[in-house]
Design brief:
The protein is mainly β and 368 residues long. It has 4 helices and 23 strands. The longest helix is centred in the first third of the chain and has 9 residues.
Length: 368
């Protein structure tokens, strides 16, 4: 369901004026949603409580005993299953790195007004569930079906539109796409979609519909708000734009040393400083990670671990010979398709896909 909201609610997306600070509405979003503490990059699998969270509306009240997942539309036989029935089917586990499409938005200038992510909107989990392709095969996809539309139980207003959260994927469905009911071996936490969610390896987080209730096969491309309005790369408000899909390559560094409370500037001692982090891309494995200690003027290759799965991040390691003074550490990734992180922002009105390099301010001082 999508309909206009009552007068006075919502409005078009906007870009902050020059000099405009983060507003109370953005702070309220930041209080509801949280990113990955960068020191948690030490974990190959992110503990559920440290994995990034973005909830568009409210976390729905959910009772797994009464939950039903329906499959209908352009199928030979409409079917539905309860959560327990899906758990009884053969289970599949995939390790998937998930990143919010708006990660990096708050670093853009001018700043698109929305959830003010810096670089921490990411996490990697072991998701367990059933292969979506098998469920669709059981229902029998009609030859004229072109997309599957996924509906979550979360409901609200966004930019003047009342809606259930809905997204679609093109057919045929990738074999790795899951209907998940577990995260890291335990039932999904409420904020991560309990009792059922979609997991779409390689795609930004907007595609991983939580609190999944319905899958409808359609014979024309889905034109709902989240598909045709919200998640598009646009330079101006009146253009159609291109859809947001696969995750752009990114490397993040676990900041070395210890931090200043307010500025997060790091303090290290002189000499060898171990550096580590994670790198990923929705387009394929990361084949190169480089770091710089002079804000990107010169680069050193890091050691990159082999890919542990099709769409899971990879560890990287290096050593920096720290010298006294102030430094800016930078790290960037290149994937197997040759896509490399840019040094500067790629601006768009939604603040999507900004994979500009991470910069970490470090002071090297004796006794640090």
């Amino acid at each position: 369901m999508e309909r206009a909201s009552p007068e006075g609610l919502g409005g078009p997306g906007r870009v902050a004026a020059v000099g405009e600070g983060v507003g109370a509405d953005e702070l309220a979003l930041a209080a509801r949603n949280h990113g990955l503490p960068l020191e948690a990059l030490r974990y190959e699998v992110t503990p559920a409580g440290l994995h990034y969270v973005l909830v568009h509306y409210d976390i729905p009240a959910a009772d797994a005993d009464g939950w039903r997942l329906r499959v209908g539309g352009r199928v030979r036989t409409a079917v539905e299953w309860g959560a327990d029935e899906l758990r009884a089917r053969p289970a599949v586990t995939r390790r998937v790195t998930m990143e919010c499409a708006g990660n990096g938005r708050a670093r853009l200038s001018p700043r698109p007004v929305s959830q003010p992510w810096l670089v921490e909107a990411v996490g990697t989990a072991d998701w367990t569930g059933v292969a979506l392709g098998g469920l669709l095969a059981e229902a029998g996809v009609e030859p004229d079906a072109v997309e599957a539309v996924f509906t979550g139980a979360d409901h609200g207003f966004e930019r003047g539109v009342e809606q259930d959260y809905r997204r679609s994927l093109p057919l045929p469905i990738d074999a790795d796409v899951l209907i998940a009911y577990e995260m890291n071996g335990l039932p999904l936490p409420p904020q991560h979609g309990y009792p059922l969610r979609l997991v779409v390896p390689g795609w930004y987080g907007m595609a991983h519909v939580k609190w999944l209730t319905d899958i409808t096969l359609v014979d024309v491309p889905f034109a709902g708000f989240q598909q045709s309005v919200a998640y598009r790369f646009r330079q101006s408000p009146d253009e159609a734009g291109e859809p947001v899909t696969l995750i752009e390559p990114r490397a993040l560094m676990a900041p070395p040393g210890f931090p200043d409370f307010m500025t997060r500037t790091r303090v290290v001692g002189p000499g060898p400083v171990p550096l580590m982090g994670r790198a990923w891309s929705g387009y394929g494995p990361v084949v190169r990670v480089e770091f710089s200690a002079d804000a990107g003027l010169t680069w050193v290759d890091a050691e990159v671990a082999a890919a542990g799965g099709r769409c899971a991040w990879q560890a990287w390691h290096g050593v920096w010979e720290a010298t006294a003074g102030a430094h800016t550490l930078v790290v960037r990734a290149t994937d197997t398709e040759g896509r490399r992180q840019p040094l500067e922002q790629r601006w768009n009105r939604g603040g999507f896909g900004n994979n500009a390099v991470q910069r970490v301010a470090v002071v090297c001082a004796p006794g640090g």
